[in-house]
Amino acid sequence: MKQCPICQSISPLRTPQSVSDYICPACGANSRQRIARTVQATLGVLLDFGHVDALIIDPNHVIDIQIIKKVWRACCWDTDNKRELFVHMSQWQRFMDGQRVGRVRYDPDNSPPQKLVCVYKMLSRLRDDRYALKQVKGVMTGDSIVLINELDDPKLAHTIDLDPDDEKSFGRFRRYGRDLPARIAEALDVRFVARIEGRDEGFTFVQENYYVAGNDHQLLGLPLLYPHSLCELYDFSLPDRDESGLPEPITREKRLVFFPDYSAANPYQTLLYGNILLAGPGDIDKALQLQQRENSDIATIFHLHWTAPIFEHAGNDSQMVRRLMNEFIEKVEAFIQAGGDLVWTIHNVITHESLHRELEEQFSARLAELATRVILHTTDSQEILARYFQLPAQKVTIAPHGNYIHSYPVDCSPLEARKSLQIPEDATVFLFFGQVRRYKGVRHLIRAFKTISQSNPNIWLIIVGRVLPDDFRREITALCTEAPRIITELEFIHDQDVQRYFLASDFAVLPFRQILNSGSALLSLSFARPVIAPRLGVLRSLLQGMEELTYDPEDREEALVKRMLAAAAFDKKQVRTFMEKAYELVLDMPWSASTQIINGLIKELFFKGDERVAPSGRPTYQSPAPSCRPPARVAIVVCHYGNLEDTMSCLRSLDADKSEPFHGYLVSNDDDLTAYQYVRRVAPHWTCIQSPGNIGFAAGCNLALRDIKDAGYDYIWLVNPDTIAPSNHLTRLVQNADALPESDIFGTTIVMDDDPDFVWYGGACISFEHGLQAKHLHYGESPGALPEGPYSVDYVTGASLFFRSHLLDDIGLLPERYFLYFEETDWCMQARAHGKNLVMLPELILRHKRRSVQKGVPTFHYLYYYTRNLLLMCRTWNPNKLDRCVQHHRKTLAASWLKKYEQLGPQDIERAKDFIELGFRDGLAGVQGYCDLNRFLDQMRLKRLLPDAS
Length: 950
Prior knowledge:
Radius of gyration: 30 Å
Helix content: 25-40%
Oligomer: single chain
Shape: globular
CATH architecture of the largest domain: Alpha-Beta Complex
Distance between the termini: 50 Å
Strand content: 15-25%
Number of helices: 31
């Protein structure tokens, strides 16, 4: 039985031969055109974060959660009339249940689509650690699932065969030919959409929340809270909707263009650029176009990675190769002359199987001359590059290659992985993973395996990766069929399947003949698999401490056999020890280190006149003070982190109060420079300060407070970036403060943004009965239920902290030892100890979005920092009751957090417990400041990578 998407009638439905074969007995719907216009779209993008949230209208229109739920950072880049939407994944929130939200009118004639949208390439960079297309299960031909990760190229797409009853089963990819559109049309049930007519179009949304009938597009079950953005960015018409007061969409220009874009198949660039929203893919023509735009006051960076795509399609034609190289150099020279900067990360000087070695050497040497900065991943690379050209030391930056610890899922065990490949549990398994090419020594590996397998019947070899070129594929296939216990998967492997091969193995083997950098080695270590390899290039330093498994490349014929024989002789305990050592090698190689270096280059090249030195000694940046601004009694500090839309909404609400002049200071505590660049450009009346990175709330605010301290202001107001101030709020704050000369610190009522009748902060008290307990007053009440008039409180929340400026002389700056949470509580306690009065002004109300809660549960960062800092504050103000504080917190607040996880996020409850316990441990030990919680997550992940200890 099935419901007809046109007439909604329920009737039997035969399995169609193609989409156009659908016939509804009730309404007679049977035309291809009508079916294509009336579908429920469920083919779409499944994000690793657990919610499928992306809507593709056509190549020029991408709707994301920013429009449906105001929690994403939208980044619209309008180039050549093509609009792409980028988002920042750290701001994810769970969809809330809602009513049918009306219809969106879409006129396809306004912007006829040219081709299917490449969802993967458009959105793949926009994740915290990893993004991938995943299968969406449905009634499909052959119980298969379509994975569209290369929709921009009709020649390339994949299907994966699955057991319909086993969502974790593993299958094999098969590659479609040029008839991809027709094959998709045949494969998809009418609940999916693939409109293949004169105009290719993919209407895709998820969880059957999007409905199309004619030209009416309808969103089902989702609260459409951002219609203004929808209209502005995508030219939709939303009748009968009040758009007043909604924030304007934010348009960001990409000023770092990287080439080539390999992010669809390789997570390297996605992880390298992290949350740098100023970075985007493109070629030298795009970089030159950006740099030559009129009124461009900021330089563009062209970040070159691999050079092969510049000339590889010329093949053996050396004359064409020379011409392509010269054309590229000419464009780079024009780009630099226009004010742009070339940054080159050297992955290899000469392509591994070069046909034009001399030309490539000359080309690389010229690029090195033109580059403003050359990035290398290891110091070893400098010795190798010296054979080809000289690099001045001032040009070279070492940016360590990050690990791949969280780049691929791990949702099966090593034992399950072996069972899926039919490998015995007690076998010793060697793995080669990566592109199979001649220079990688795979033939040598197969021969070595044949030699040792004769006397070792319980060893296995897995070879995984696409073989290039095709004639080499035939050679490898023939070699593998001659030996037993060799498993091959000589195709591109989807992200979900990567885990299976690594978890089934004991050792990775990479018998390279030549290498500069090796992503395969880092990937192996990230899966806690020790690497057998020659001491070449980066492998010499990367595999230090693993001498039992590395060998002299000059003796590779015999040495590889010896190392594999030795590895096969290790017992399970020894293998486990090697796995732990392998994982340790990459634990301290986060991508944040490289990202900070890239950010540093952007800061250095973009904002040369803004640089200054922070108290920590690390560089920070501050825009020139706005000229001719009127005198003001109030300085406002907004410490930005993460969500630029929230921050801009906050700034706009503050700017709307015209009756009380103020001087605004925006501190960007992001690694990403988007906020600094954007606010500096669109709100020049705000002084913008870029911190060296995420240095914590107090340290970020203090960057501004040091400048404000002696500037002659009467009042200072610290405001969270996720708050909205109503009209005349600042004016009323100043009036109340002037009327209460005996009071020094002032708080206001704060309500939840999505529920203005819910008081989040109505004052606060501190109890020392159980060590230390900080509590918001009137939490959950209606604003009308609060007491009238000013009343005393123990502390004022940092979400809205208004105080007389002389307190910075009397008390000092905010304490930075907490990093996040309790810094304002401690500072207010110090103020009370100095005899200062703190009062609540209940009639003044702010709206607050409270980003520390996601999906209805506290974030892991919140669990850790709140727990740790509660104990740190207790150590300061009531040290004799520290143990009692631990007991009380464990029984009350910590228990309530875990109850929420049990109800709303049971899959994460064990990790939540771990973060709470880490907070207890570090709080008792007196650990202060920033804690690398990502490293803690990395350590927790190791348990899932190791085979059973028994």
